[in-house]
Amino acid sequence: MKDKIIIRVISIIILMIVMVKCGYKEKIKGIGTALTPLKEIVVIELFKDNFSSTNIDTTKWSNSECNINDNGIEPPSIPYSLDIPGTASITSKPVDLSQYTNEVKLEFYIEETGWGNSPEYGEDLYVYCSNENGWVEIGRYIVSEISETNFESKSITIDKTNLHSKFRIRFSNPYGTGVEYDDWYIDNVRITTTEVQ
Ligand SMILES: [Ca+2]
Ligand SMILES: [Ca+2]
Ligand SMILES: [Ca+2]
Asked: For residue 79, how far is its CA from the centre of ligand 3 (angstroms)?
């Protein structure tokens, strides 16, 4: 009997402690919510191409011997990706980035060979952007470091000094043997920034 009373008293004490603790937490949470402004970071797409048809979109790109086809293995947006064979390149049309002060990123997926022809040693893929003085290398993808069967996601932060009103990007395979050889693929190309709203 005595034991039962002790157990009941202990149970009541534990319950009171739990209630007090929960109440305290609610209070803190309430204060926090009241003080935190309701703002969220939103991703803004400034340029986007998923290469969804076999025609290169000439409102977005100036092309030099690249093709959109299904020779890439499992591109992130099936069935097509952009095939950049040896000596080919593709350059975006100008995008006005002069207004953006937050971080700007170029994102894309990349694969080499796929169902096509393997680039050899030194036949790497280069990424450039234009600043007001010309072209700046912002990425180089080494043949031996990129998968032949999986698209890998890449992200390049654009240096603020390169953000201007006629910003362009270029993907180039300058050392490949020729347009029948040495295939690189890219897909889901986008340029983004963020905005606090
Ligand atoms: Ca695609
Ligand atoms: Ca080859
Ligand atoms: Ca070659």
From this structure: 25
Cβ neighbours of 181 (radius 10 Å): 17
* Same domain, yes or no: 53 and 32: no
Domain limits at 170? Answer: 41-196
Contacts of 123 (CB under 8 A, 6+ apart): 86, 143, 173, 175, 176, 177, 182
pLDDT digits (tens, 9 = 90+) for 48-93: 999 999 999 999 999 889 999 999 999 999 999 999 999 999 999 9
> Full-prediction pTM beyond 0.85?
no
In this structure, the answer to whether residues 68 and 149 fall within a common structural domain is yes
Same domain membership, residue 64 and residue 130: yes
Q: How far apart are CA 122 and CA 172, in angstroms?
A: 13
Residues 121 and 88 reside in one and the same domain? yes
Ligand approaching nearest to the C-alpha of 189: 1
